[in-house]
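Figure S7 source data.
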Amino acid sequence: ASHLNGPAQPVAPVANFTASATTVNTGQVITLTDASTHQPTAWNWSMTGGSPASSSQQNTSVSYSVAGTYTITLTASNGAGSDSHSITVTVNDAPPSYCIPTTSLDYNWISRVAFANLDVASNAWNNGYTDFTGNTANVSTGSTYTLTVEPNVDYWSGIDVQAWIDWNRDGTFSSSERVYARRGTGPYSSNVSVPTNAVLGSVRMRVRLAYGKSPDPCESDTYMGETEDFLVNISSGTAGPAGWVGQKQPALSVFPNPSNGQFTLELSSPALQTVSVYVLSLEGKMVYQKSISTEGLTRHSLDLSHLSTGIYFLKVASPDRVQNLELTILE
Ligand SMILES: [Ca+2]
Ligand SMILES: [Ca+2]
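Tokens for the predicted calcium ion complex:
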């Protein structure tokens, strides 16, 4: 047993690392710090889809230009062996920046905005502009929702209420994106239809009340009035089953379908939630199960290539309901 008193035997590393964030916007840098044990001498980072896509430094960083779900793997090695550790990161589209209009006088302001499930009351004029983008209306393409604006009015004549939704998410409110316009006394209420080609995810809605003129979404010289901004989360009305609008179930789609067993599941969820994903055979036997945390528009790979060809049933269960979709696996 003399070797017990000899030099320490080399031990293969146990790979580990920390990430500065696991949910980021496109372009945002994630710092990755090695935390492997047993003295690795080489590091190999796999960051497929990122910039850079790989690194051999001990510590590194990565960013992603396209929204999605990505895997980061560190393989740490020394003379005794190697080990790998992986994490998943979620990349969301960075929100565009918007012009901020100002207003000079505290007459005639917005006291309430309601749209779909959103309903925000505000007590007073707030230097002409209030950012309410912490409040989200959940809508679906192809559906119609009521937009209601309640004004607090000191001078009735010439009140002009307008609203825009940045349907194409390009950071500007174009005239074709004006969803509401009314001059005169209220009620200020109208139906807004969500275009079928609207960009999915979070976009901005701007509501503006002016006096004596039709407000531009950006101008800063309006006499009196107020502007309020909100978020509108747009889900695909064709992917989700009818009746999900305004509730918390994610809209889902799967592509390609049929496939050879490699599917991508796309979920659009208005709020953070955990859903259970099951795949059942025609006989009702569970052949796949996965738990997914989702918020906003996310994509997840479903690897069913180990299953034999045929038809399967995908079930996505949220706390409120179960949604079903047929999957076909081909050769
Ligand atoms: Ca207000
Ligand atoms: Ca736009």
